[in-house]
Design brief:
151 residues; mainly alpha; two-stranded antiparallel sheet; 50% helix; 5% strand
């Protein structure tokens, strides 16, 4: 009588049990890896949104300060009798202002940092269009030329 070969794992289903356990382990590892990648993606998206919000807040603050400074400078400039020399100084120190023009009651440019704008008529009704109701958003009109362009 020949002896029966002994199962090295001591199991009735030796090879089938091994492959089932290996498949289960592989499925577990792949599942945990997929879960971890999904969690890391969620964290990365949340961090990106927080960073974008911080950039937006910083930009808003910078823009608000710039517009406040422009407002103060233009109010001071409007109070002068002869704004031409002050206009040149303001343009030299405030690089974010491309040109400044003053109009009379009829909309004709009487003072300007750009000589080609003198005498042009500005149609100001299109600059801030009226909305159907008060809105909390900024409304702007059509694009216009920045320097010596038709208004």
């Amino acid at each position: 009588m020949t002896p029966q070969p002994r199962n090295p794992w001591g199991l009735k289903w030796g090879a089938a049990s091994f492959w089932a356990a290996a498949a289960l382990l592989l499925t577990l590892v792949l599942g945990l890896t997929a879960f971890n990648l999904w969690r890391l993606r969620t964290v990365a998206l949340d961090n990106g949104l927080v960073t974008a919000a911080q950039f937006a807040n910083a930009f808003e603050e910078h823009l608000s300060q710039t517009l406040s400074l422009v407002d103060v400078n233009l109010v001071n400039l409007a109070e002068l009798d002869k704004p031409d020399s002050a206009m040149a100084a303001l343009m030299r120190h405030a690089r974010y202002i491309r040109s400044i023009s003053f109009t009379d009651a009829q909309g004709v440019v009487v003072h300007s940092s750009e000589a080609r704008n003198l005498g042009l008529r500005v149609e100001d009704s299109a600059l801030l269009p009226q909305g159907p109701e008060p809105l909390s958003i900024l409304r702007i009109g059509p694009l216009t030329g920045g320097r010596a362009g038709p208004f």
